[in-house]
Design a protein that fits this description.
The complex is a heterotrimer of chains A (about 450), B (about 290) and C (about 280). Chain A has 18 helices and 14 strands. Chain A is an alpha/beta fold. In chain A, strands 2-1-3-13-6 form a 5-stranded mixed sheet. A 5-stranded mixed sheet of chain A has the order 8-9-10-7-11. Chain A is globular and about 80 Å long. With about 290 residues, chain B is mainly alpha-helical. Chain B has a two-stranded antiparallel ribbon. Chain C has a two-stranded antiparallel sheet with strand order 1-2. Chain C is globular and about 75 Å long. The chains are: A alpha/beta (about 450), B mainly alpha (about 290), C mainly alpha (about 280). The interface between B and C is large, with 104 and 93 residues.
């Protein structure tokens, strides 16, 4: 009776065609045919750091024939992995930062590794405490490690000599640091800054952390934010003292001309900044871009009269996780285990010129290590004053707030106490709200 | 219904069928779903958990939300009116019968074609504090340029400037509108002894007022979705969150923090604000906008 | 409004020329920077015209090793973008023409109501539906593929429906009536009479979508996870250095490569473009 007209036919055909194409294209194949199972591994490193991981992946692939790891370099890997996991197509292994662990665990974005660890007998006894701690959250293990890092003061020996300072004696107290910095700062005939002795805003990756060096912390580990504790305020007053002393605009202009981090135009490598707080990886960039640089590394200075605050360092690590919804979690863990074995870890960390997160280290590793100051970094990792990124669910927002506060006081738009009070208020409210929300959801 | 009407109905529905799918699947369902999500804690990795108005209450006390909203409205308060003034002004100039009108129109239009990401990066370079060409050009006429994108006070004006560079699109629209204005009105005004300024005020502006209204409303909707350019230039809204716009906070909530319920609540508030402002604009325009033929 | 006096004409020309220089300058500066050696980009005061035309910058841009991801497969990103653009244009033109025909050339019960709803949806900003659409695509398993970026184009969009419907209504009804009397099916009328007459409007729809696909940033940002699938808009970001300091000459070269096709396309399709924009703005 009602014959389908062409008017209905064509659009329906078109819709059908599109849906057919849409639902059938793009199927993935895995090792069902008998070959090795391929797992996808997203990692952040490029350059020689990437090469070191590539060598480790190759070593794993060659050591057995069941699993083939496909390494992919991904920028903003933590964000991308989260979105891919949210979208239902995560990689099997992802290389994140330790600060991601608790957030992603709470969001159900990564798998708990305890069943695997128990089966293999791997645990806290194998790792340096500060790094094992980074993998744990709420009593469970959510990640294992790749490359650890600590930070220390790096100084330019040649510039020290030029300024009349002993090139082998780095500053030991904050007061000495300030005094040395002044001697090392030079200007041109117009008074424009040409070289800075030290800048708390360089490289800008630990703008939030200065409080720790003065005995402060970011929260009490339970329910109180401590952004505006007296120690933190003292720390940021010290930061702002540089802005006040050398001029906010002058420093801004000076800083905006800095070159690419991974290039000879890097501020420290081009001798534009004489002292800088940096991580164990800095040696690599020096070797590559400024091999003639005379440099040293030592624990960052502590406030005079507070030797109990010596050897403060930020201990972080890059970690490996298995995202929720990964297609091959068992194979993924096998690879992760390899990277955390003494052989795999020393191979990777030798390649990246870092130290290993394991308690056991081979003497050969220490002997052959190209970084002349590697033991400084290892000792700092064992220090009782080593801190890590707070394991707060809202850490990203907290860090953003701290960075904003830093920007504001660095530009002298706010006094340190004011800036930190704002952060304190906001983050305490957020924490309260977050804890309330958690309580609400847990039943 | 007659047999003829039945056939036409079938045909009509047939032709419109792709839109049925598009409308219901990509618009109506998501609108309803997102409203439900806005009442939930939803991370897409876990099932949505109903929390009533919790998200809206949290937004009310969320300083970042207010900052983002303030940034967006502040930006709109300058970008929209200035945009109208500049584009309409240019259109009026072009409509004076000058030689080479099409060439000028092309010159003004081409910048609005530049893909947003390229635009953001190009202007990042132009605004650069140390090597940016803008400050040097200003220096040539004796003005010391500010830090633009590294100065919390000047970052938004920088973005307004950048937006004004893309008015070419609106210029074309206004020009078409101006060119369709009947000549007799201008001739009548001249007979009445009107000078240039009076002609603009009493003939040009009323003639083109519906277009201004339409562009303003569209501009308002666009401002809340201002995302690609600021996201590429300063993803965290640096310095000091001065360029953290509404759409960026929404995106971060949805995809960086995986708080999709919270993001949906933000979207609904945005929708509400746009509706209210649009209604206000329409009411306000009743007195100002002149519609030809009634 | 005509400018009568020669002084007025001179003044207007002066203003227009001045503004033209201002408007063109950023593009000129983009190309100029793209041809400079790296040291010249940092020169103070700036060098307006490069001392040499370092065309190798363009080659370097296409083969660039960034500090974010290593090698940037510029060519592949271009192909990805073109793939999405072509599919999108095909879907947009086809689906919206069909739907607009249904609204414009046929009278049926409920048509005007549905059209009013269609218009109303133009007011709904994308973020309102963004999260739900993402969740929908996730459950379909389409995240990470290109599908979310081209499949919706085959199901119409309010703006294009509106545009084409306005245009279709200007075609005289007599043409359709005559064809119906001759026994032509409705689809035949659509295909053989209306579509050929609508070429200018269809060209506008195609051009607009092409521009949109070339430009689209948010869509690829949230739906594409595999870097091999990225589009130019996403890839351009990789040239920025993560740790401060960027090779601006290379970045400007990459920018120029992305901007150039759009400008060239514009010069070949100027009239269509301008007419299309004028029509959309006028019907407010």
């Amino acid at each position: 009776m009602l014959k389908p007209s062409r008017a209905t036919a064509l659009p329906s055909l078109m819709i059908a065609a599109v849906l057919v194409v849409a639902t059938t294209t793009g199927c993935r194949h895995d090792g069902r045919s008998g070959g090795p199972i391929t797992i996808d591994y997203w990692e952040k490193w490029t350059g020689f750091e990437g090469d070191a991981m590539r060598a480790t992946v190759n070593a794993f692939n060659e050591s057995q024939s069941r699993i083939h790891v496909n390494l992919l370099t991904v920028s903003q890997v933590d964000r991308k992995m989260l979105m891919a996991t949210a979208g239902g197509i995560p990689p099997d292994v992802a290389g994140l930062w330790s600060s991601n662990v608790n957030v992603y665990a709470d969001k159900n974005a990564v798998l708990c590794l305890d069943p695997y660890l128990k089966r293999e007998g791997i645990g806290e006894q194998d790792f340096l405490p500060v790094f094992w701690d980074l993998c744990r959250h709420r009593g469970k293990t959510w990640a294992l490690l790749t490359t650890p890092a600590t930070i220390a003061l790096h100084w330019n020996k040649r510039l020290f000599r030029e300024a009349g300072l002993d090139p082998n004696r780095p500053p030991r107290t904050i007061e000495e640091l300030d005094a040395f910095a002044e001697k090392l700062t030079t200007r041109d005939k117009d008074g424009k800054i040409v070289r800075m002795g030290f800048m708390p805003s360089e490289p800008g990756w630990w703008n939030w952390a200065w409080g720790y060096f003065f005995g402060g912390r970011m929260w009490d580990g339970k329910s109180k934010i401590t952004a505006n504790s007296p120690e933190n305020i003292r720390a940021f007053e010290w930061v702002q003292s540089y802005s006040k002393k050398y001029g906010a605009t002058a420093l801004q202009t000076f800083q905006s001309g800095f070159g690419n981090f991974s290039s000879p135009q890097n501020a420290f490598l081009s001798e534009t900044v004489a002292m800088e707080i940096q991580g164990v990886w800095m040696h690599n960039f020096i070797s590559k871009y400024a091999p003639k640089l005379e440099w040293g590394a030592a624990p960052f200075p502590h406030p005079a009269g507070r030797p109990d605050l010596a050897n403060v360092t930020d201990a972080e690590a890059d970690v490996l996780v298995i995202p929720t919804g990964a297609k091959h979690p068992d194979e993924a863990f096998e690879f992760i285990r390899f990277v955390n074995s003494q052989g795999g870890s020393e191979l990777l960390n030798m390649g990246q010129r870092k130290f290993t997160p394991l308690r056991k280290v081979s003497a050969e590793f220490l002997r052959k290590h190209p970084n002349p100051y590697i033991e400084v970094f290892i000792d700092l990792a064992k220090s009782k004053n080593a801190f890590s990124t707070p394991k707060l669910g809202m850490w990203n927002e907290y860090a953003d707030e701290m960075n904003n506060a830093f920007d504001n006081l660095w530009l002298q738009k706010r006094a340190p106490k004011e800036a930190l009070d704002i952060v304190q208020q906001r983050m305490q409210k957020k924490l309260d709200r977050g804890l309330r929300r958690e309580a609400r959801l847990e039943h | 219904m007659t047999r003829q009407e039945k056939r036409t109905l079938r045909n009509g529905l047939g032709f419109v069928s792709p839109w049925f799918v598009g409308l219901s699947v990509f618009l109506l369902y998501p609108i309803i779903a997102s409203f439900y999500f806005s009442l939930c804690e939803y991370s897409v990795l876990m099932k949505p958990q109903f929390i009533g108005l919790g998200n809206y209450a949290d937004l009310f006390t969320d300083e970042v939300f207010w900052k983002a909203l303030g940034n967006t409205l502040g930006y709109a308060a300058f970008a929209l009116p200035l945009g109208v003034v500049v584009s309409l002004g240019l259109a009026i100039l072009l409509n004076t019968g000058v030689r080479g009108m099409t060439v000028y129109r092309t010159i003004f239009f081409v910048p609005s074609l530049v893909p947003m990401v390229a635009l953001a990066i190009l202007w990042l370079w132009i605004f650069n504090g140390e090597h940016g060409v803008l400050n040097h050009v200003l220096g040539l006429i004796g003005i010391k340029g500010p830090g633009w994108l590294s100065d919390p006070f000047w970052a938004k004006p920088a973005l307004v400037l950048l937006t004004l560079w893309g008015v070419g699109h609106a210029v074309v629209i206004y020009l078409a509108g101006l060119q369709s204005a009947p000549q007799q009105l201008y001739e009548a005004a001249e007979l009445d002894g009107a000078n240039w300024g009076q002609k603009v005020r009493h003939v040009t502006l009323p003639m083109v007022s519906p277009v201004i209204l339409f562009n303003t409303i569209m501009g308002l909707i666009g401002v809340f979705q201002f995302f690609a350019v600021p996201y590429v230039m300063s993803p965290r809204g640096q310095p000091a969150r001065s360029t953290y716009f509404f759409a960026m906070y929404l995106y971060d909530n949805a995809f960086s923090y995986l708080r999709m319920g919270y993001a949906s609540a933000m979207a609904w508030i945005m929708f509400l604000i746009i509706l209210v402002l649009t209604l206000l604009a329409l009411k306000f325009s009743e007195r100002l906008v002149y519609y030809e033929g009634g | 409004m005509e400018a009568k006096s020669p002084q007025a004409k001179f003044l207007i020309h002066a203003i227009l020329i001045g503004l033209s220089i201002v408007f063109l300058f950023p593009l000129f500066w983009m190309v100029s920077t793209s041809l400079k050696p790296i040291e010249e980009t940092m020169k103070v005061p700036p060098q307006w015209i490069p001392s040499t035309f370092q065309l190798s910058n363009y080659w370097k841009a296409i083969t660039y090793q960034s500090d974010q991801v290593g090698y940037i497969p510029f060519l592949r990103y271009t192909l990805n973008t073109l793939y999405l653009a072509v599919l999108g244009v095909a879907g947009t033109v086809l689906s919206n023409a069909l739907v607009a025909y249904g609204f414009a050339r046929l009278k049926w019960k409920g048509r005007d109501l549905l059209f009013a709803v269609t218009l109303a949806t133009m007011m709904v900003p994308f973020p309102v539906t963004m999260v739900a659409v993402f969740a929908l695509f996730k459950h379909l398993g389409w995240i990470g593929s290109f599908k979310p970026l081209w499949v919706p184009a085959f199901f119409g969009s309010a703006f294009n429906i509106f545009l084409l419907r306005q245009f279709f209504r200007t075609i005289p009804e007599e043409l359709s009536d005559a064809a119906r009397v001759d026994g032509c099916s409705e689809f035949g009328i659509f295909w053989r009479i209306i579509l050929p007459l609508a070429k200018p409007a269809l060209a506008v729809v195609a051009l607009f979508h092409l521009l949109y696909a070339w430009n689209d940033f948010l869509g690829p940002l949230i739906y594409l996870t595999d870097q091999k699938h990225f589009t130019l808009a996403l890839g351009l970001q990789f040239y920025q250095s993560q740790h401060g300091g960027t090779e601006w000459n290379m970045l400007m070269a990459a920018c120029t490569i992305i901007v150039l096709p759009v400008i060239i396309l514009f010069f070949f399709t100027q009239r269509t473009f301008i007419q299309g924009i004028a029509v959309t703005g006028m019907k407010g």
